[in-house]
Amino acid sequence: MKVPKSPDAILKFVKDSKIKIIRLWFTDILGQLKGFAIPQDELEKAFYEGMGFDGSSIEGFVRIYESDLLAKPDPRTFSILPWTIDGEKTACVFCDIMTPDGKPYEGDPRYVLRMNLKIAKELGYTYFVGPELEYFYVNGPDNPATLDKGGYFDVTPTDVGTKLRKKTIFVLEKMGINVEYTHHEVSHSQHEIDLRYRDALTMADYTMIYRLIVKEIAREDGVYATFMPKPIFGINGSGMHTHQSLFEGKKNAFYDPDDEYSLSDIAKYFIAGLLKHSEEITAVTNQWVNSYKRLVPGYEAPAYISWGRKNRSALVRVPFYKPKKEESIRVEYRAPDPACNPYLAFSCMLRAGLRGIEKKYPLPEPIEEDIYTMSENERKKRGIKSLPDSLYTAILNTEKSDVVKDALGENVFKKFIANRKREWEEYRIQVTDYEIKKYLPIL
What we know:
- By secondary structure, the protein is of the alpha+beta class.
- The chain has two domains: 7-102, Ubiquitin-like (UB roll); 114-433, Glutamine synthetase/guanido kinase, catalytic domain (Creatine Kinase, Chain A, domain 2, 2-Layer Sandwich), CATH 3.30.590.
- It has helices at 7-16, 43-48, 109-122, 161-174, 200-220, 265-276, 278-285, 291-294, 342-359, 376-381, 391-399, 402-428, 433-439, and strands spanning 21-27, 33-39, 51-54, 68-73, 79-80, 90-98, 126-140, 143-146, 179-184, 190-195, 198-199, 224-226, 240-248, 251-252, 304-305, 307-308, 316-317, 331-333, 385-386.
């Protein structure tokens, strides 16, 4: 079913299709999907005036004495949800958040990404991303027992996730979200569905829908899907490797057919920017305490700051599947996890890369050896630094970063830092099962 993308056409479509309820969506500062529903009769007012709501109850939004905000639907994101409520069709649409005087609200993560994409556009670039979101199917939110014993690319009758992935793909495609491929991941009960690359704003919206659909399909089958970065000790966690490229019109600005890596100077500067500012942006791409249980050596997650082509222990990788195909040349940043706020994460990766282009950062030599097996002295000799090893360390790096402050804007920057510090303090004072089991019998 082709869905219209202009307000007047949508209003007619909703009436003709007898869609009674429309869900207005946006995200809070942590990337949690928020929203409320309106009846069909209110949709016209929503498009042209916006719908008021209390912003003081949304994490990272306004203070209680300046609580009034408006949610104004972006018609280009209008879609039909694949399930009914009491037999009635339901639609959804992402919103831009506005202040009562009609100005964009600076604390809206979607607005933050819009502003960064505007900066890229003024430089002549369109920023495309293609994230690979991994996740686990487990028995329930309180029971992380896995559902299968499958491994990477396994196709077996015992892989119960195959059916769930298949249903998820059908729903995503029905909603107009193109899937590139899907497969079982390395860990037991770990899966991946990769979305075909799109401009960053569209992809951030798609990422929010993707996470919702994966969870909803799992719930319908009586299991639980989690995007928690490291839900199970001793096996690989879940990442969101993010493939990125800059286009100038239809030309891939990262492509140079005469370079040994097929990389242009623009691409090399962009990679250098990601490497140089990686420690600063990690609190945004990996925003939870649990994120740092994944970023450790030995589990296919990057722990060290380097780049390479074939090296999957590197932070930045240049995929080399089709080195002479212009469209295929891109940069893969491997640190983010699928529980981040995609609007803010894409913003920070873009601005780190653009800073590299602006300053013409020199690109260090690629590292193709397994960095995990190197000694600390060897890494030091080769200038290989480490990513932050805890949320607290990451916050300290982010707090000093003018790149992240410029990317997020002062409003979101201050609130994000304060929010993450609060989580670290909550975590820091906990007494864990590890401590009880280790210390209580002997102390």
